[in-house]
Amino acid sequence: MKTVYSDKHHLHHGQAELFAGKLVPCFEMPSRADMIFAEVKKRNLGEILVPQNFDRTRIERVHRPAYVDFLEQAWADWTAIGETTDILPICTPARDMRSDRIPQNIHGRVSYFSFDTTAPITSGTWTAAKTAADVALTAQNLITKGARSAFALCRPPGHHASSDYYGGYCFLNNAAIAAQGFRDAGAARVAILDVDYHHGNGTQSIFYDRSDVYFASVHGDPATSYPFFLGYGDETGRGPGEGCNANYPLAAGTSAETWFEALEIACAGVQRYQPDALVISLGVDTYEGDPISYFKLKSEDFLKMGDRLARLDLPTLFVMEGGYAVEDLGVNTVNVLEAFAHKN
Ligand code: OKP
Ligand code: ZN
């Protein structure tokens, strides 16, 4: 399996996120992608490619142009008012507040386009996020050109970012951009299977009204797990998209055995949909050692996961999402990919 990777992810390096009432060092750190990259090389997963530079219009197929403008300009707008630290929002438009007017000043704009306090924007965030989207599109293109699988080693991750807001360490939705890439290259139906511990709220939202992209996710129950406000089992899609969204929320503390039962049901849904291509939002924060998540998969379970995903027998793009037990992150991630490649 080929890997697409760029070291430009280092340009995104937040200082701190708000966690349990304190500013703590960001869990989503550059060493994460470095660890995965080192393991890909160590185990000879396959050739490693740098991303091509795609036009911004490819991103705007799933993100609102005003949002992309905001991300590209945010750091310049922030430093223009004399600020020098990372950008974090002050407030968020809740329930009955106005969301039809984009504020003019940078503090207002940051608050408008974000939904939490975990994703600082730094001087290099736009370049890193744009490059991660390019990584996903480059890997998608390999599959469109005939490869059976590919690994997009994206950082920052993407699945919490929606059409016009960021949060949860995510700015551009790499998996959604790639899924749309498959559609634009002629695939009639694309499925996205999200195995990250956290619900992929952004991906769900982007495709919620559509029948051409199926979204399935196994994740921590939003009643007790981040991102709290999306990911319940009764969210099944809307209008033409009815039946094309499938959530499998599991209680915090869920065992590997129960997790694999849910994966089995999610895989059956993907199979029924008969997609032309599959995108896996690959978070490995389901690991028992993850510092911010609460499932109990062991490193060997990630081999089993790769094995199961291979049996779907579909052209498959892996897009990196979460995983914060940095020491074991490379092994857990490459376990999925290697087991998958072994069967394909
Ligand atoms: C990003 B991805 C939980 C705090 C949650 C944000 C988590 C973002 C996860 N106690 N902080 O889905 O891995
Ligand atoms: Zn996660």
Task: Please characterize this protein's 3D structure.
The chain has 344 residues and is of the alpha/beta class. The protein has a single domain, classed as Arginase, Chain A, CATH 3.40.800. The protein contains 10 helices and 10 strands. The strands form 2 sheets. An 8-stranded parallel sheet has the order 4-1-5-10-9-6-7-8, with helices on both faces. The chain has a two-stranded antiparallel sheet with strand order 2-3. Helix 3 (65-80) packs antiparallel against helix 4 (106-112), helix 8 (256-273) packs parallel to helix 9 and helix 9 (299-310) runs parallel beside helix 10 (326-342). The mean pLDDT is 98. It binds {5-[(3-aminopropyl)amino]pentyl}boronic acid (OKP) and zinc ion. Zinc ion (ZN) is lined by residues 196-198, 283, 285, 321-322. Zinc ion binds next to loops.
List the helices and strands and how they pair.
Blueprint: E1 2-4, E2 16-19, E3 22-25, H1 30-42, E4 48-49, H2 56-59, H3 65-80, H4 106-112, H5 125-144, E5 149-152, H6 174-184, E6 190-194, H7 201-207, E7 213-220, E8 245-250, H8 256-273, E9 277-282, H9 299-310, E10 316-320, H10 326-342
Parallel strand pairs: 1-4, 1-5, 5-10, 6-7, 6-9, 7-8, 9-10
Antiparallel strand pairs: 2-3
Helix pairs in contact: 1-10, 3-4, 5-6, 8-9, 9-10
Bound molecules: {5-[(3-aminopropyl)amino]pentyl}boronic acid (OKP) and zinc ion.
{5-[(3-aminopropyl)amino]pentyl}boronic acid is lined by residues 118, 157, 160, 168-169, 196, 198, 226, 283, 285, 292, 321-322.
